[in-house]
Amino acid sequence: xxxxxxxxxxxxxIVAAAAWAPRLGVAAPLILVVLGVGYSLIPGVPPIVVxxxxxxxxxxxxxxxxxxxxxxxxxxxxxxxTIGVLSVVLVVASALVTGFVLYMILPDLNLAAAIALGAVxxxxxxxxxxxxxxxxxxxxxxxxxxxxxxxxxxxxxxVMLRTAIAATAVTASGAEVVAWNAVGEFFxxxxxxxxxxxxxxxxxxxxxxxLDNPMLDTAISFAVPFIAYIPAEELHGSGxxxxxxxxxYSGHQSAKAFTAQSRISERFNWRTVQFVLENGVFxxxxxxxxxxIADIDPGMLPIHEAVLLGLLMTGLLILIRYFxxxxxxxxxxxxxxxxxxxxxxxxxxxxxxxxxxxxGARHDRRRSGIERRIDRRRNDIAQLRxxxxxxxxxxxxxxxxxxxxxxxxxxxxxxxxTPYYEQLVLIAFVVAVTTLLLQGGTLPLVIRLxxxxxxxxxxxxxxxxxxxxxMSTAGVAVLEGDDVTIQGVEIDRAVVxxxxxxxxxxxQSAWERAEYADRTDGLAESPHQQYRSLRREVISAERAAxxxxxxxxxxxxxxxxxxxxLIDLExxxxxxxxxxxxxxx
Length: 585
What we know:
Layout: H1 2-24, H2 28-40, H3 52-68, H4 73-78, H5 80-105, H6 111-121, H7 126-136, H8 140-170, H9 175-208, H10 214-234, H11 239-257, H12 260-287, H13 289-294, H14 303-355, H15 361-386, H16 391-399, H17 405-412, H18 421-450, H19 457-476, E1 485-486, E2 489-490, H20 493-501, H21 506-516, H22 527-552, H23 557-578
Antiparallel strand pairs: 1-2
Helix pairs in contact: 1-2, 2-12, 3-10, 3-11, 3-12, 3-17, 5-6, 5-8, 5-14, 6-8, 7-8, 7-18, 8-9, 8-11, 9-10, 9-11, 10-11, 10-12, 12-23, 14-15, 14-16, 14-18, 16-18, 17-18, 19-22, 19-23, 20-22, 22-23
């Protein structure tokens, strides 16, 4: 009963923090960490003890999947090199440097165990930084980089952690095993994980597209992250990468594989799951502090020294991150300077292709494919140039290195026989909480002082209007001609004009259904039924134009997502009207 009351109080605290956070100008995760710490200090309250496997296997997969299905694949692809440096190279460097420092300070700690803790405190949290970044309105490319880094770097850290723990059992120092095995294990883990994740994503999409019930569709999606995670871990791959791969594939295919109602239901339900889980784990993080402190033996390392080590590791991690970010920003700027040369070369290649004489249908298809790839690359270059990140972006990217619940859960998964085990868990906790409160609490101020600006709303409106015009042109083309027919049935011109003007009213449809319900031909001759059939044809053409624009990369992902939402709402409205013959629906 005590824990039931604690759970209810936790839900209330999560909702209250989310409601008050915008008014206080503070991100909800920061408030929840403070509330959790305050709870842990109340005498007599039930202690909060969460097994690390519950977080790593029960909470992490759905959290990563919920984030992955909303990340535009085109943005992930465009920023893949930057994401790779931050999520792999930076994590490895951070783990090695911080691990070596701990090894030099703590006399009874071997190098492998020290590197294991370094791997624990190295990955950034996908939720903490992006929740603040989206609320403040950072440039979309910067948000995409932070999202991609947070999705992938957990895999690097957990693979290093697993390797370091194995090394601890093999040799006293473990340095050789960590050095030689980490690289091989990482590439094996990534290969296995990507293969399993993509296969799971393909099967999940195939199954879900055959379900015409959004409730069943969403229920299946809840199982996908675990179906992707468990086999990858059993084969010693990275369950994290597998979940991310399945989520990216499912999210990318949803626009053409699922119904509008299924997409709307999935977005809403997964956002709710993500909201409860991600905020709940931050609350639990703070609530565990008293349990962590109570287990510490001050004879080996006093609490205040462990806290000081945690603060030292925090400062070291910030320095290492900036050490990587500044050269990375310089390399990105140099890359942007070469874009003009590449763009002119692509333009010349495209001109030569278009000037070639046709040599048959097969040759034309091949040439069309090459032209499409060239056009996509030109659009990639245009978007990257338009969303370039200068020194201001470097400042924000370097400061947005908050740690989260994976750090604490992974620390508790260290072998209990590890020297200084309780102190190492406290060090990880100090790093996570300090980065959340220090960096997370001051990130809005850093963003304002840097002067970095988010997306131009006026430009976004123009981009959206341009895309909608392109889509509507493709849709209206369905209505051109003297006679418009669908499945051999000629559509009345009045219906065509109604579709063109889009003046359907739900109330009129309901009256019309009542009028035509008893006729032998049902609603086949109903003007509203004809309207809906024709309107769906128009929407289908608009969706094809949208998917074509997405494949070409002609518009920013945020614009494509807004247009997708508009189409989904209209299509879902038509589906609901078609099902409106039964009162219970």
